[in-house]
Specification:
Elements lengths: L11 E2 L4 E2 L4 H11 L3 E6 L2 E7 H9 L12 H4 L6 E2 L5 H11 L3 E6 L6 E7 H11 L1
Parallel strand pairs: 2-3, 5-6
Antiparallel strand pairs: 1-7, 3-4, 6-7
Amino acid sequence: MAENPPITAVMTPYPYFIDGGASLNSAKAMMAQMRIHHLPVKQDGRLVSVLSERDIQRAETLGVDTSAGGATRVQDICHQAAYVVGPQEPLKTVLLTLAEKHLDSVLVVEGKGESEKLLGIFTVTDACRCYAETL
C-alpha cells in the first residue's frame, strides 16, 4: 500500500444504501442479507446519515419496534450526520478524523448537492483490514 493513499484506494466501492423513509425492519433485513454493518441513508436523494448495526441494537434495547410491519422508519433512529469526503481525501486524514470524532464510517462522494454521487464507504473494519495487511 502507498504511504498515504487516497481514500478511494481502500474504500468499499458502490455500497448499498437505503432511503430514510424505509422501515427499520427492511434496513435490518437488508443488512443481514448483504452481511453488512453500515448502511448509508439518503433523504430526498441526498446522503444524510449512516445507519449501523449498533444503532439498531441500541434502538431495540430502548424498546423500539423493529419487527416486520413496525412503524419505525430509518430516519427515526439516524441522528448523526454522515462524515463525507471527496475521492482524493488522504487516508491518514480520514483515519485521524475517525479517531478524533469517535466515528466508525466515512462516505466517499463525488460532486455536491443534486449531483452528489456515492462512490464508496470506509469503515473501522476496513481500517483494521488495511492495518493487518501492512503487518
